[in-house]
Amino acid sequence: MMIMLITIFFFILSNLMMMMSMILSKKSFMDREKCSPFECGFDPKSMSRIPFSLHFFLITIIFLIFDVEIALIFPIIMLFKMVNMLTWIKTSFFFIIILLIGLYHEWNQNMLNWTN
């Protein structure tokens, strides 16, 4: 019974804190610059179809892919002493082969070259 009361108390407390932060964070000062849309450093009043290099997008996607893969490699390293050695080697080898195939595909499609 006591645990339930403590849980309800913290639930109500956290909701009150969230509501207070929403009330206190309201912006009452409206400025023309603050109300105007701002995206990627381009002036929103100018031409909306400014040519944008696709290479920036591709580099970002490649970075995100390899960043997620690094996050997946860390648990494999931590499992080194917990699992069978043969299972660990097979899993690690399979994962690294997938990474190398992806890197080869990006290199083969000239995604790693800045100019075509």
UniProtKB/TrEMBL annotation:
Its main location: membrane. It comes from the Eukaryota. GO terms for molecular function: NADH dehydrogenase (ubiquinone) activity. It is a multi-pass membrane protein. It catalyses: a ubiquinone + NADH + 5 H(+)(in) = a ubiquinol + NAD(+) + 4 H(+)(out). It is found in: Membrane; Mitochondrion membrane. The keyword NAD applies. The keyword Ribonucleoprotein does not apply. Pfam families: Oxidored_q4. The chain crosses the membrane at residues 54-80, 87-105. Its EC number is 7.1.1.2. InterPro entries: NADH_UbQ/plastoQ_OxRdtase_su3 (IPR000440), NDAH_ubi_oxred_su3_sf (IPR038430). It is an enzyme of class 7 (translocase). Keywords: Electron transport, Membrane, Mitochondrion, NAD, Respiratory chain, Translocase, Transmembrane, Transmembrane helix, Transport, Ubiquinone. GO terms for cellular component: mitochondrial membrane; NADH dehydrogenase complex. PANTHER family: NADH-UBIQUINONE OXIDOREDUCTASE CHAIN 3. Belongs to the complex I subunit 3 family. Core subunit of the mitochondrial membrane respiratory chain NADH dehydrogenase (Complex I) which catalyzes electron transfer from NADH through the respiratory chain, using ubiquinone as an electron acceptor. Essential for the catalytic activity of complex I. This is NADH-ubiquinone oxidoreductase chain 3.
